[in-house]
Amino acid sequence: MHPSGRLAGEDRALTVDLDMDRFLREIETRAYRFAVMGIGDRDEAFDVVQDSMIRLVKRYAKRPAEEWRPLFYRILSNCIRDWHRRRRVRDSVLRFFGGQESEVPDPVALARDRSHNNPMDVVARDDAMTELEQALAQLPARQREAFMLRTFEGLDVAETAAAMRCSDGSVKTHLSRATHRLRELLSEYY
Amino acid sequence: MANHDDKTTENLLAKTKALFDGSVQELDAATRKRLREARQRALEELDSPPWFAAPKVWAPAAAAIVLAVLIVPGLERGIPDAEGDFGTVAAADLELLLGEEELEMLAELEFYEWLDAENVIESGGEIVDGVG
Questions:
Q1: Which of A26, A120, B93, B114 has the fewest CB atoms within 10 Å around its CB?
Q2: Cα–Cα distance between A47 and A175 in angstroms, integer?
Q3: What are the residues whose beta carbons fall under 8 Å from the beta carbon of B41, sequence distance 6 or more?
Q4: What's the per-residue H, E or C state across chain A?
Q5: For chain A, what are the domain ranges?
Q6: Which residues from B are below 8 Å from A46, CB to CB?
Q7: Mean pLDDT across chain A, nearest whole number?
Q8: pLDDT tens per residue across span A78-106
Q9: Band of residue A108 on the pLDDT scale cut at 50, 70, 90
Q10: Which residue of A has its CA nearest to B33?
Q11: Which pLDDT does position A39 carry in this prediction?
Q12: B53 min Cα distance to partner chain A (Å)
């Protein structure tokens, strides 16, 4: 290979490295909170986020950087769905053999570090957050996914549809139903 | 009424988003450190060869192809047709191992070596020279 060609290739690879590092740095904390809310278990959420990052890098690093966000959230959503599926199977097997099912996550364990905040604010936010997490947990998975992607992550309808592998119309339907249900569930707060 | 609904929905969306953003901001140092490590682990994949270049992907397939090419034709032919041909030798070995007579021969190898040395077996396998 011509030396300049090799250098150009190396430059391109370095640019991808930097871009991917920047992208993952931007989304990692949000992705983690997204996973915690989708799964309800901190350690499992770490694993799911790391798996999603690795899959993105392995499969899509060479795709244009603008596509990474919906692709990442598609992978993350799939990983969360797979996690629920695996847990259902595990629980069925455990039930069959008379064992204990997976424990419901302890809300205290899921609480955030608020050591630097006003205690009253913390309590109020805690209550609101717990209510929100419980309300979201009551939604069907696809509605929850649509709501979180659109509202929390700010993906537009087309990006959300790409992430969820469904049509724009389905996203709107899921989102409308999710919003309607959340309004009922959270009427005391909002 | 519709206006009121819209406002309530907007309020809900804005407040839930603010709550979520706040929970992201408040992540503790240990969590951020673990996420940084997860990111580094993912970025290491950029330097690893693509999946199709990994030997572990191709090794089993290559081994299966080699076995198929070397052994199957030999098994089909049944007998060695060329000296030093690995495939036919392998097939002959298999026949040797599977055949009862050959196993007996192996057990009495010293006897057959003696017969050979004494030139007492003519072609056709009949024992001559009064031996036996």
A1: A120
A2: 27
A3: A50, A53, A54
A4: CCHHHHHHHHHHHHHHHHHHHHHHHHHHHHHHHHHHHHHCCHHHHHHHHHHHHHHHHHHHCCCCHHHHHHHHHHHHHHHHHHHHHHHHHHHHHHHHCCCCCCCCCCHHHHCCCCCCCCHHHHHHHHHHHHHHHHHHHHCCHHHHHHHHHHHHCCCCHHHHHHHHCCCHHHHHHHHHHHHHHHHHHCCCCC
A5: 1-102, 111-190
A6: 34-35, 38
A7: 83
A8: 999 999 889 888 878 877 777 655 555 55
A9: very low
A10: A29
A11: 87
A12: 13
CA-nearest residue to B50 within chain A is A58
Interface of A with B in 69-108 (CB under 8 A): none
* pLDDT value of position B17: 93
Residue of chain B minimizing CA distance to A117: B26
Chain B residues inside the 8 Å CB shell of A50: 38, 41-42
Of the spans A164-178, B4-18, B34-48, which averages the highest pLDDT? Answer: A164-178
Looking at this predicted complex, what is its ipTM? 0.77
Contacts of A179 (CB under 8 A, 6+ apart): A147, B9, B12, B13
Selected from 1.10.10.10, 1.10.150.130, 3.30.750.24, 3.40.605.10, the CATH number assigned to the domain covering A111-190 reads 1.10.10.10
Q: Once rounded to an integer, what is the mean pLDDT over residues A107-129?
A: 60
For A41-71, write each residue's pLDDT tens digit: 889 999 999 999 999 999 999 899 989 999 9
B106 and A CB contact within 8 Å:
no
Asked if the Cβ–Cβ distance from B31 to A13 is below 8 Å, we say no
Per-residue pLDDT at A2: 53
Secondary structure (DSSP) of chain B = -HHHHHHHHHHHHHHHHHHHHHHHHT--HHHHHHHHHHHHHHHHTTTSPPGGG-HHHHHHHHHHHHHHHHHHHHHHH-S--STT-HHHHHHHHHHHHH-HHHHHHHHTHHHHHHHHHTT-B-TTS-B-TT--
